[in-house]
Amino acid sequence: MKPSRIALLSESDIIGGAEVMIFQLASELRARGHEVHFIGPSNGSGWLGGRFRDAGFAAHEFLLTRALQPSCLRQIVRILREQRIEVAHSHMFAMAVYG
Question: What is the 3-state secondary structure (H, E, C) of the chain?
């Protein structure tokens, strides 16, 4: 199977169960040969984005000030296009809507 460029999208950047699962998923996808990017909020705690950067993943940020906002979607689409992402995997409520 040809490796894919995959983005994992999260609206949360704290230490929690979903965030740990997202990081574990990214690690397994990379181990299988895929290029994985994290896309998360710039106004979070910084934990998850930092964890991705420390592990050598590309980490991208968007500004999220409320659950659903068109400007956030525009930022995410711009990142997806710039990074030539083939698969976007979203997590949690707002990202599920954007995904």
Answer: CCCCEEEEEECCCCCCHHHHHHHHHHHHHHHCCCEEEEEEECCCCCHHHHHHHHCCCEEEEECCCCCCCHHHHHHHHHHHHHCCCCEEEEECHHHHHHC
